[in-house]
Amino acid sequence: MYKYYHLLYELTKVSVYTVLHLEVLIYTVHRSQCVWYCCESINIYPTQVSVCTVLLIVSASAAPLTSNEVETRIVAVSKSKPELLSAAVSAADPDLLRVALTDADPDLLEIALTEATEALLKVALTRGVRPENLKVALTRSRPETLKTALTLSDANLLKTALEEANGELLATALLKADARILAVALTQSRPELLAVALQDATPENLEVALTPSGGRGKRSVYGPPRYYGYGGLYSPYYNPLPLRYYAY
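User: That's the sequence. What structure does it adopt?
Assistant: C-alpha cells below.
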C-alpha cells in the first residue's frame, strides 16, 4: 500500500488542473469490484485551492501497479510543465498515453513532459503512431537524442519516423546517432526517403549515416604521404623542387 500512499502524497503537491485528470493518470485495469478511497479538503500547491474530493483507485482484486507505473505517474503529476501535461491528457490517443504511462523510462518521460514543444508532443501521442515505436522512443533513446526529436523536428518528419520506422532501426537511430546529424535528418529529409532509411537500412549502415567519422578512415586530399630528401622531410603535401645533378 505504500506506493499508493506515496502517489497520493505527490498528488497533493500539484495543480487543480492535474487532479481533474486523475482518472487518466492513475489508470488501473479493473477485473472485478474496486474500492475508492477519498481524501477530503486537501489544499493543493501552488494554488492552495481546497478540493473536496480526490479519488484514488485502488483495488485488492485488480492487477497491481508495477513500480514503473507508479514512477511514471509521479513524474506526470509532479514534474511536468502544465502546458505539456495539458497536451498529453487532452490530445493523446488513449492507447498511446497508456503506453507512455506503463512502459516509459521515467527519466525519458520527464524529458518528454518538460523539454518537448507542445506541437511535437501532440504529434508523438496522436493516433497513427505505432505504439511499439513510441515505446522505443521512451525506453531506448539517449536523453539528448530524445530532446532533439521532440524540440527540433519537422512535425511531418517526426510523424513519419514514429509511424513507419522499423522499431529496431528507430532504436539504433535514437541510441547511436549524433544529435546534430539526427537534427538534420529530422528537419531536412524528404518524408518518403526518411521512411526508406528507417525501414531498409542495416543497423550498421544506419549508424554510419548518423554518426561523424571522427577521423576514422579519412584519406588526405593530398594523396598518400611521400618521403622526400632534405634531411628526412616527411610530408603529405610538401613538394620540393626536383633535384638536379650535374656532371662536372
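The radius of gyration is 27 Å.
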